[in-house]
Amino acid sequence: MYRIAQLLDRARQQRPGHVATRMDDRVRTWAQVHERIARLAAAYRALGAAPGDRVALLGLNSDRYFETIFATAWAGTAVVPVNTRLAAPEIAYILEDCRPAILVVDTAFQAVLADLPAALRPAVTISLDAAPVPDGQADHEALIAGHAPMPAAPAGGSDLAGIYYTGGTTGRSKGVMLSHDNLVTNAFNTVDGMRFDRDTNVLHAAPMFHLADGMNSYAVTALGGSHCFIPRFTPEGALEAIGRYGASHAAMVPTMLNMLSRVEGLERFDTSTLRQINFGAAPMQEAVFRRVQAKFPHVRLLHGYGMTETAPLLTVLPAEYNTLDGPLAGRLSSCGLAVLGVELRIVDAEGQEVPTGTVGEIAARGPNVMLGYWNRPEETAAVLRDGWMHTGDGGYMDEEGFVFIVDRIKDMVVSGGENVYSAEVENAIALMDAVAEVAVFGIPHPEWGEAVHATVVPVAGQALTAEAVIAHCRTEIAGYKCPRSVEIRGEPMPVSGAGKILKTELRKPYWRGETRGVA
For the residues 433-451, what does the mean pLDDT come to? Predict the structure, then answer.
């Protein structure tokens, strides 16, 4: 049985004087952070939060956000990190679904509270950073100062530690229930797979409510490394913070890396301490990878694949395979090998393993796999079958265990009986210099059932036509895979909190009124 509290205990025991967190002018050691978290947990219990209760957290990245995540586990409660990009009705849906005992909110989202129905507001609201503190709210710092440290609650193992709501890329958000065992074993998998060490100083630039970044909170803490924070990602802000805090590692999604590589005047930023960027949550097109590698030649790019339901890490592509040249080239398009605590296999529609090299659905098993979906037993049963988590991702495995993702199962376009994988078409289009973002999906067609469609956002100042995109595709991929229609979009793509393009939103105008749609 594992406990999240043991990660903090280990950090304080082995590195009490080492820097734990940095933000602005606040610098704290592991001894200080350990005590603050134990005091904050005592405050939660004094405010009425009982073991098993939920604590919802709505705020931007910060050292106090980090303390809140660990204080919930220390108190025996479960954290519910809320996507900061959601509208008030979507936040209301989450609060109604999980019914938290406490809501923790920072200044950036105080206005959202006024838009929430009174019946959904928890009895206790805590302000992370507001000055002055709004009427009726408790203050994060005052709570820490006003309570003695409590011993860690005896929560652990299969006890609920967090409810992480999915990004809604395939429908309405579901609350993924993760246990102490889930999150701690994932931390160990992350330490090994991502090659973290005691000198890791991770910059939290991606949103911490999402486990693509949030997993680093647990993994780096287990080692007694260091955390530094910026409230929200901007490419210039991230570059400046790397130099200011001496960050060695960061986690980003490909969209963020794309933006980082396009910053003018990169030489004015000191990125000499940066050793590694972990990326995932969405595929990175080869053209983007080449540009990032050229702009940051001293930085390892490490591709990880996973999902919220698996806490989240499933595979990592070792850094030596992230190359375009030499004897190890050829696996750049792979998402890597299963991490130590995970079993993977590729299965057919009946759940039977398919031969090597055959496309099927990726299924995973291990102590990192979720308890289930909050209040959704039928949907839990649909994906947790015979001890395996069915990911909904289509892919294949080669003879050495490297996994290659071809598409979300629901993103595969079936046109005239031919399977077209949207990721393959997106990779072809992304090779065009004038393309900033691209999304490919199926739209209804009276003869073929579905037709391949591409939505493309051009690079600012670049001219791009639908005809040019289609003509380019014909030089890169088979004719039946080429888009039959292209929208040149003048505004950024809609994205989830994890930075994934929301194809559900892009599809809606095309499938409206159809009796069959694609989720």
Answer: 84
